[in-house]
Q: What sequence folds into this?
């Protein structure tokens, strides 16, 4: 009996290890290619024949006419941080208004927002481009920040679900003590929803950081210094460039993952709580 | 529905009463919106309202009316450049820009609608002020009004900026694109050098035309089918996979749960566009997987059993229909399962343990527990998000576009419509607008509206079931 259990245990862990390996193969490949001395795609060996850190050096210290990674990274980082702040604030504000306040037209507005959200983003991107051009904001960081964060209020649903679970008696008690809605929002509801805020912050940082289509439509500049990471990395995988830049792409991909990984590690605990906290409600 | 019309009727009736029963100040606000406030000594508010009114009329008459007048034709004067050989300069005539006309007209109309709503609600407010005055009630000072904005009316403060953003980024573009579906806006009618105009329902006819000269009907039916198949597979494989993986890791017999979980989460941390491009290169014609397969003899084995045509010496993972369809779904499992696993982990931890215990005492097998207790619970909690992710997959641009970016169709019917076999509706419309020389924006808009109708229909059906017997306040 005991032997059988041990064998089962071993098999279980072997299966898990196999699965994990399967999931990690592309990541490992990304890693080793970035650390290899070869510049193009390596089709014959999984591991490179020679190791070097030259790809990272090229990425950071030798920006050329095609790959200007420091500038891309800077642009993406600025956009990411700005959107992170604006979107999070917007989402929390809308969620509070819809969850904790009762006013005329609330249901109608909520339904309206759901319907608006159904419209395919790729299609409206084109029109957004025209609107931004009209405002003179195309081809600029500010334009991208506006594009990413202005509509973020629509993503309030999960956050609202979380606010719905905060006992109404807490808010009522605050009101009896003479607190205004603003005070209730800032002093009672916000401190109680840390997991949700973490979730919102991660999401609003990740969306622009990982986005590719919008940036590609919005930024027409031929000057690589104006690009974001995603456009830049996509560009160096073009058929004519891939032979010289594939390893650089891998190195860039790894670097891009760094801020996200840090966010994840710090906030992983909250993250799981945050998702379910809002989801339990449905 | 009845309630809705009744509400609208009430809305205008109130306005009527306000006009009929209002005193001099109230009626004066019909012309100058601030007058009603001046009469009740709300000077600041009155000035603000009057300023808004003046601003609106200046905006409309100076700016929008010039465009609105041309909305019916979308402009008639084509751009012409005249080169003057004497001064060596080019002079451009006073041409019409259809794009600007359409866009600015939409903005102008939105302003007018907003103003009418404001105007009506203003009359009602002024009338209420009059009533309050007659009843001798306290009328708020401006300071008290401001205080209200962080109290009873805090929602106005909260919602103003986000709504403004949504209007600029979502509403105006959507209205614009819906209008484009009824025009002939394409590369041959590209402002500023050319004009485009209204064509009615012609584009919708093109989408459903099945003759040999236009691939649109042909491609549309097939791409729609593939989109739905893809969305169904992509949603359910990752959902089930995520739950199974989460259960597997969370099992009491598993050691180092955190470590295993982190190993899978690593794949989320790397942005999708990186991993997807990477994987697409791995499975490329001369990619590492093909090299590996031909070395271990898999390529020739597949040739022998007839799965691969003889002329190929590589496996067309992402470059032939059939192969590409299966690969895309498989790769999506790779992308989506860790994320679902993370979500499922959180929910599985919340399953009331006593239920599982009692089932076990009653002699249920593990399998029974999974199907009769775990799954129903999971479905209850994540049911709504299943629909959301189904819709997300219909609109899953990244996976398809980045994985099958190198895909070239050999089917002339698809090629005629700028489509390929692996396209979803959403990538198809993107290709129509960017990759082709014809840039048929109008067809892209038509497809976009179709996608919208599908998604909205699905949402309406499910959300109306979900919100039945309003569960919103259950936990409050």
A:
């Amino acid at each position: 009996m005991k032997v059988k259990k041990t064998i089962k245990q071993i098999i279980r862990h072997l299966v898990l290890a196999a699965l994990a390996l399967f999931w990690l193969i592309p990541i490992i490949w990304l890693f080793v290619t970035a650390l290899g001395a070869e510049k193009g795609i390596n089709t014959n060996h999984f591991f490179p024949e020679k190791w070097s850190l030259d790809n990272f050096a090229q990425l950071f210290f030798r920006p050329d006419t095609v790959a200007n990674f420091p500038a891309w990274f800077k642009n993406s980082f600025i956009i990411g941080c700005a959107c992170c702040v604006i979107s999070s604030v917007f989402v929390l504000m809308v969620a509070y208004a819809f969850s904790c306040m009762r006013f005329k037209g609330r249901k109608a507005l909520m339904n309206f927002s759901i319907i608006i959200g159904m419209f395919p983003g790729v299609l409206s991107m084109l029109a957004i481009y025209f609107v931004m051009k009209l405002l003179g904001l195309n081809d600029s960081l500010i334009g991208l920040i506006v594009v990413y964060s202005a509509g973020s209020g629509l993503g309030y649903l999960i956050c609202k679900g979380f606010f719905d679970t905060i006992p109404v008696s807490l808010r009522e008690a605050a009101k009896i003590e003479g607190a205004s809605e603003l005070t209730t929002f800032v002093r009672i509801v916000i401190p109680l929803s840390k997991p949700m805020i973490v979730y919102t912050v991660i999401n609003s940082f990740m969306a622009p950081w990982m986005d590719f289509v919008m940036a590609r439509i919005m930024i027409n500049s031929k000057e690589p210094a104006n690009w974001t990471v995603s456009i830049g990395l996509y560009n160096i995988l073009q058929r004519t460039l891939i032979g010289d830049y594939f390893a650089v792409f891998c190195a860039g991909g790894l670097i891009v993952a760094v801020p996200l990984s840090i966010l994840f590690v710090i906030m992983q605990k909250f993250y799981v709580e945050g998702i379910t906290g809002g989801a339990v409600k449905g | 529905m009845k309630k809705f019309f009744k509400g609208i009727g009430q809305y205008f009736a109130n306005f009527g009463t306000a006009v009929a029963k209002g005193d001099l100040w109230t009626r004066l606000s019909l012309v100058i919106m601030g007058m009603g406030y001046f009469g009740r000594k709300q000077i600041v508010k009155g000035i603000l309202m009057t300023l808004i009114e003046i601003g609106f009329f200046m905006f409309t008459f100076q700016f929008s009316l010039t465009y609105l007048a041309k909305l019916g034709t979308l402009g008639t004067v084509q751009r012409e450049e005249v080169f003057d050989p004497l001064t060596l300069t080019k002079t451009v005539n006073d041409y019409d820009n259809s794009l600007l006309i359409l866009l600015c007209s939409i903005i102008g109309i939105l302003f007018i609608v907003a103003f009418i709503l404001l105007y009506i609600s203003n009359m009602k407010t002024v009338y209420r002020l009059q009533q309050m005055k007659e009843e001798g009630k306290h009328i708020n000072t401006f300071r008290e009004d401001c205080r209200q904005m962080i109290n009873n009316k805090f929602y106005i403060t909260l919602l103003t900026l986000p709504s403004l953003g949504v209007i600029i980024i979502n509403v105006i573009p959507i209205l614009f694109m819906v209008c484009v579906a009824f025009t002939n806006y394409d590369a041959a009618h590209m402002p500023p050098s050319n004009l485009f105009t209204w064509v009615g329902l012609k584009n919708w006819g093109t989408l459903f035309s099945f003759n040999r000269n236009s691939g649109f009907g042909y491609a549309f039916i097939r791409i729609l089918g593939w989109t739905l198949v893809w969305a169904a597979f992509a949603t359910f494989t990752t959902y089930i996979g995520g739950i199974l993986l989460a259960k597997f890791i969370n099992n009491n017999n598993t050691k180092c749960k955190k470590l295993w979980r982190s190993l899978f989460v690593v794949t989320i941390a790397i942005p999708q566009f990186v991993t997807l491009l990477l994987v697409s290169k791995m499975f490329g014609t001369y990619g590492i997987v093909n090299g590996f397969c031909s070395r271990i003899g898999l390529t020739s084995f597949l040739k022998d059993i007839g799965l691969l045509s003889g002329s190929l010496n590589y496996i067309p993972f992402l470059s032939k229909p059939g192969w590409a369809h299966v690969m895309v779904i498989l790769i999506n499992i790779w992308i989506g399962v860790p994320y679902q696993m993370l979500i499922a982990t959180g929910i599985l931890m919340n399953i009331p343990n006593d239920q599982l215990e009692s089932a076990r005492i009653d002699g249920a097998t593990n399998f029974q527990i999974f199907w009769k207790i775990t799954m129903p619970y999971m479905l209850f909690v994540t049911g709504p998000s299943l629909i959301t992710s189904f819709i997300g997959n219909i609109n899953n641009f990244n996976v398809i576009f980045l994985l099958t970016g190198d895909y070239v169709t050999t089917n002339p019917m698809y090629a005629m419509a700028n489509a390929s076999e692996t396209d979803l509706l959403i990538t198809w419309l993107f290709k129509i607008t960017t990759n082709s020389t014809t840039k048929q924006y109008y067809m892209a808009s038509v497809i976009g509206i179709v996608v919208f109708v599908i998604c909205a229909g699905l949402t309406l059906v499910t959300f109306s079931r979900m919100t039945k017997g309003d569960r919103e306040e259950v936990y409050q």
